[in-house]
């Protein structure tokens, strides 16, 4: 965006600070009009014939744009993906501990990638891993939903759980 002396066109279509069209003017006349009002001449449509320029306070305009960008960034939520790793022959107590971690992550609004790692010949029985993932989902289903179904990827079986939408939207709000 070119302002003031950076504008190269000889004639421009001038728009007042209030937004009304003042017609096609020579660049010197447009510059004088802006200087008389202690404002800047800003090129808003450089590809038009003739280019369109607007009289405005450019510093104020840039400040307002930056404030709007910051407000938009504040409103957006980031979702983290946490990972939990299990083995097919996990004990009941260890399973309960891992389930507690999954519950905590889902309550916090994070997605959870649950990985079952197979070693040796365990990979010949993927149904054990799938049964374990289904059991985990059944126990945390009130907190989350399956985003990607159990999938065998090499020696690992992976499933992704996501918090229910109402929980994810509450993440940014503190009560």
UniProtKB/TrEMBL annotation:
GO terms for MF: ribosome binding; translation initiation factor activity
Location(s) in or outside the cell: Cytoplasm
GO CC terms: cytosol; membrane
Keywords per UniProt: Cytoplasm, Initiation factor, Protein biosynthesis
Translation initiation factor 3 N-terminal domain segment(s): 3-71
Domain Translation initiation factor 3 C-terminal residues, every copy: 79-164
PROSITE patterns, A to Z: IF3
Gene3D superfamilies xref list: Translation initiation factor 3 (IF-3), C-terminal domain (3.30.110.10), Translation initiation factor 3 (IF-3), N-terminal domain (3.10.20.80)
GO BP annotations, alphabetical order: ribosome disassembly
Main location: cytoplasm
Top-rank lineage group of the source organism: Bacteria
Record function comment: IF-3 binds to the 30S ribosomal subunit and shifts the equilibrium between 70S ribosomes and their 50S and 30S subunits in favor of the free subunits, thus enhancing the availability of 30S subunits on which protein synthesis initiation begins.
Family from the record: Belongs to the IF-3 family.
Subunit structure, as described in the record: Monomer.
This protein's name: Translation initiation factor IF-3
Source organism of this protein record: Rubrobacter taiwanensis
């Amino acid at each position: 965006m070119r302002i003031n002396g950076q504008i190269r066109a000889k004639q421009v279509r001038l728009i007042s600070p209030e937004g009304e069209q003042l017609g096609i003017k020579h660049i010197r006349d447009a510059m004088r009009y802006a200087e008389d009002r202690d404002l800047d001449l800003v090129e808003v449509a450089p590809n038009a014939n003739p280019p369109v320029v607007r009289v405005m306070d450019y510093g104020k305009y840039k400040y307002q744009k930056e404030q709007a960008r910051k407000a938009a960034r504040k409103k957006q939520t980031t979702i983290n993906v946490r990972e939990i790793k299990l083995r097919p022959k996990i004990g009941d107590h260890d399973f309960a501990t891992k389930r507690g971690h999954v519950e905590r992550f889902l309550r916090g609004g994070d997605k959870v990638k649950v990985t079952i790692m197979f070693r040796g010949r365990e990979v010949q029985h993927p149904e054990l891993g799938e049964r374990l993932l289904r059991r985990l989902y059944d126990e945390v289903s009130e907190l989350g939903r399956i985003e990607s179904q159990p999938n065998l990827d090499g020696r690992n079986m992976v499933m992704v759980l996501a918090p229910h939408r109402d929980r994810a939207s509450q993440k940014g709000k503190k009560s």
